[in-house]
Structures are given as C-alpha cells and as structure tokens.
Amino acid sequence: MNESEFRDWSHKAADWGADYRAGLRDRPVRPQTKPGAIAGQIAASPPETAEAMADIFADFERIVVPGMTHWQHPRFFAYFPANAAPESVVAEYLVSAMAAQCMLWQTSPAATELETRMVDWLRQALGLADGFAGSIQDSASSATLNAVLVMRERALDWAGNREGLPGQKTLRIYSSDQVHTSIDRAIWVAGVGERNLVRIPTGGSLRGMDVTALERAIEADRAAGHLPAGIIACVGGTSVGATDDIAAVVAVARRHGLYVHVDAAWAGSAMICPEFRHFWTGVDGADSIVFNPHKWLGAQFDCSIQFVRDPESLVRTLAIRPEYLKTHGADGIVNYSEWSVPLGRRFRALKLWFLLRAYGLEGLRARIRDHVRWSEGLAGRLKRAPRFEIVTAPMLSLFSFRHRAPDGRDEDVHNQHLVDSINARGLIYLTQTRVDGRLAIRVSVGQFDTTEADVDVAFDAIVETAATLN
C-alpha cells in the first residue's frame, strides 16, 4: 500500500466507522449467527500471494460485521458498558497511525507526561486525596494483579520475587464472594493459590463484606500460622453491584497492617458525581484503587486507571532495569513500564485528553446521572408490572429482576428462557446472574448514546416477551 492508497483507505475506514455508528439502532444488538458460521466463511490457510484491499474490505463487511455484537448500540444493557465516545475513537485513529511503543519516557516523552497529567485530572475528578499517583493499565485485571503482587511482596518482606513461594508462610488474601473473577485469576497468577483467597460472608442491602467476620478470619489465620497479606474490597461488583463498607474495611486493615485494594472498575466512573461518593467513603485510606474509564466514562477500551498511594512499592515489585531499558541524562522521569506487568505500552492517555476536553466533567456527569435515573425508573416500572419482581434494587444504574413462572414450571428455567428470548429478538441485550442461588436477569444502563426512549424500548421488549412465555 503506497501513501496515496493509505490515505484513500484511511478515509474509507473513517467513513465506514461514522456510517456504522449512525446506523446502529437499525441493527440487532447481538448477531443472529450460529457457532462456526463465521469460521466457515474464512479460508482455512493463509494466502500465498497478495490480495486486493477492496476484496479484503468487502469480506470484512460481508463476513465479520454480521457476526459482531454491537457494544456501542444504544440498547446494549448487558454486562457493563464498554463505551467509546466518538472523540475517543478519533484519538485512537491517531494512536494507531503513530503506532508508538510507550514503555519508557524516552520512547515517547509526550505519552508519558500526558499520562501523568491525565491520571491526576481523573484523581481530581473523583475527589481523591492528593497523595495518590497512578498509571493507565489495559484492564482492571492487570491492575488487580499488580495489587496482589505488591501484597505478596510486602508481606514476605520483598522475598517472593527473589526466592519464590516454597518455604514461605502461607499467604492469605481476603475478599467477599461478590468480587469479579479477575481477583481469582490474580490469585492464581501470583502463586497465592485459590484456597488462600478467603471469602468473607456478605450482608445488607449492598451485599458488603461482614467486617466482623473479616477481622475474625484474619485473627484465626494468624493464630494458625498463616500470613495475612491484603484485602480486596469492591464498589459496584459485577453481578449485582455489591459494595463493601470501604471505611470499615480500611480500619480493619490498618489494625492488622494489611494492604487494601479497592476494585471500583465500573462504579468508579460515577464518583465524578459528588452525590455518589458516599458509596466509597473511606477510599482515601486504600493503598490502591482501580476504575475503568473504558466502561462508563466514554474512553475506548483499553483504559483502566490504577491509583496507588505508594508508587515505590509497586515499582519495587515490578521493575527490572537492564542496560537497554535505562534512560541516561534525564533525572526525575517516570517509566510506566515499571508500573505494570507488560513491558510494552500503548498510548492510552490521548483518548482521555480528547474525551475530557470534549465533554468536560459536567457533560460526563450529566450522562451518568441520566443513566442512574433511567435505571431507577425502569426498575420501578418493572416492579409494578404483573408477575415481575425486583431481586436487587438499583445500585447506581444496575439492578436485577425476575419473572414469576407459570404454575408447574421451574423458575430458573423460565427466566433463562425469558432472557434468551429477549436477546433473540435483537431489540435489546441483557445478561443473567445468580442471586442467593437463584437465576436473575441483570439490567445495566450505561451505553454512551443511550436515550430515555431506548430505556422505554427495553421495558416494552421485556414485558412483551414475558407475555409470550405465559
């Protein structure tokens, strides 16, 4: 591809992207395809000779697009949103064109310094204390792994990386059963082991950790000769928005000298609105916090912020400095590759800069407030509809419901059939979870371009589909 062709195809791709986003409401949210149907249209072996770009692009439109779930669809109410505001998309075009490797300050000074500034902009936006620094990770999974590794190293007096875990005391880390499975994976990868992730029972309307049980578990582990290392608390858990009492958890941690990591991957974005910050009261006492602007704030994936109170502990845990990665003659620089497990780093800060400037905090707050209000309204309407019950009340913009099955039919089977039937229609997309062992249907309002009318469509689709199952 020569320069002229690159320009032409870049224009075509940008035009296609704009047309795609403009026409999303006319598409089903989820593809109507069967497993293997896409692969069956793709050659089994790579081509020996070059193919025309026009043919490649045509196949993209013919084969790939019909098999995609449209995460930017305004009636996407499943999982959590993965928003990509148009300004963020434009920034990603530029990042892709430059294709910079931003692992060190010297490999892209602007990327490093813009990242430092953007993380601090977001610290201020969330109302966090001055003492937090941070970096942009790819996802909350990586940030949580970082936190678990620091817990491990601090508890072992920095001997884990050097000597390994055999022969050390058994490490113990504490969380509720409502945390995301990325916590389990971090425990595996860090070598702590699943059996040493101690699940603390939950209770109350927000399904938070029982802090009395937490403290008893720590004391029991110490008495048994184990080595408590840290606590992972959550604000807005993935299933139904479970939220721990962060101030109480931090108080327990301080009494026992433990590291506290707060996973607010989804709900953290809402903390740009001061009226929602009561959900994480005490968060300034945490050692690290993660939230994902790529979920609810509008930044294109991947873009996860990890705030840390003590960057030196993170760097001490992760930094390796061979000669070829050293920067000479520049004092006081930050190399963010030392703040994460991967060495390679994308230029993630640019989309945040575009996004925050294009909307301002007040523009982003307005969207989040709308989503919360519309979710509460939808939950209220479903509660009043025949045979529906609200299982978990809205936590910000997330709630769950269940539909009462006809006599003689299993309720879990009925509700799974309901969510599958709703999704098969293509108007909206929902997902299911389990609450106290029973199946429930989740609604997460948060897609960047969702309107109140889209939420009305969701109500109609749910109620009408349920009526057909009766």
Largest sheet: 7 strands, mixed
Percent of residues in helices comes to 40-55%
CATH top-level class of the domain at 101-346 = Alpha Beta
* H-E order: HHHHEHHEHEEEHEHEEHEHHEEHEEH
Low-confidence stretches: none
Walk me through this protein's architecture.
By secondary structure, this protein is an alpha/beta fold. The chain has a domain at 101-346: Type I PLP-dependent aspartate aminotransferase-like (Major domain) (Aspartate Aminotransferase, domain 2, 3-Layer(aba) Sandwich). It contains 14 helices and 13 strands. It has a seven-stranded mixed sheet with strand order 1-9-8-7-6-2-3, sandwiched between helices. It has a four-stranded antiparallel sheet with strand order 10-11-13-12. α4 packs parallel to α12 (349-384) and α5 packs across α11 (311-318). The longest helix is centred in the last third of the chain and has 36 residues, at 349-384. The mean pLDDT is 93.
